[in-house]
Amino acid sequence: MNEAKKSKGRFKPTPAFYEAIIIVIISILTFAYASLFNIHAFFDKLLKKVRVGPISGEATPIVFAILTLCLSMFSIRRWLEIRHEVRRRMIAEEGLRKHKDQLEDLVIERTRETLGLHKQVEFILAATKTGLDIIDSGYNMVYVDKGWQKVYGDPGGRKCYEYFMGRDSICPGCGVTKALETRKMVVTEEVLVKEGNRPVQVTTIPYQNEKGEWLVAEVNVDISERKKLEEELVKHRDRLEDLIKERTGQLIDNELRFRLIFNEAVDGLILADIDTRRFFMVNKSICDMLGYSEEEMKGLSVSDIHPENELPHILEQFNARPGESLRSRNRCPSNVKTAAYFMRTLPLRRSSSPAKNIS
Q: Which fold has domain 129-222?
């Protein structure tokens, strides 16, 4: 604490203090020099030439000393300014050098990052069989990624249609032409002949560079797997269509056989809706048995041909399990035109149509 106070009370010389010391020393040397070499005579002659009256011998050294002091102060001040300017420039140059070094380090770092990113992009493009190229409005190759250059070679000075397709003219349906005309992104599918007819989806993106020139960037994505899947789907669809046609033919044949057997059966057959109990299909035998026409039978229901005392038993059989058969002999009801008949009730359910019942 005491040492801090002592150091705080000490006098610290400044550049102005040194400047004052230098001025005093120069002034003393000037007086000595004037006294030694009788400089006041020279000043008398000089003042006479500029038409200033003579100065007494006692005043001449004083005037000379004042002029010398002013000149010395000016010289010292100028020297200090120059030194300060030099120091400021040195500091600025040092700062610029450090800043330049920092910029160089940053450029090197960013260059390494860019190169690393570029390598990663090239790796991803190669791994996914994706090609990237840039073409100008004259169909000249501007850029091709490294992976494709290994396959197609140096693109310098070559046209896109010659480089990729080995043609001497623009490809039919060229996406580059359409993209440059419409200024919109275009998606097409191409086959790369030089790569064993490998199919690719080409996304052509038009853009302008810093000079205002129009170019296109093409992203070529491999779609070999997708094409294989599409072919498999087409084959599967064709198989399904053939199977549907086959099953449809079988159903039609079964329907025809059923109707033939149903209509030609000696037994009387009736198909009734299990919910409404109305008849929707009858054969000729049941019409002959009951004395109704086919159209008249289709307008009747279960309750129309059964006696009231038999209805609970008949309706109970409608609720029986599908496939369970019950047989009963009933007397002819008053609205049936035949004498007597046998009735077999067989509940059925069909998935392709509303639930039906056979009576």
A: Beta-Lactamase (3.30.450)
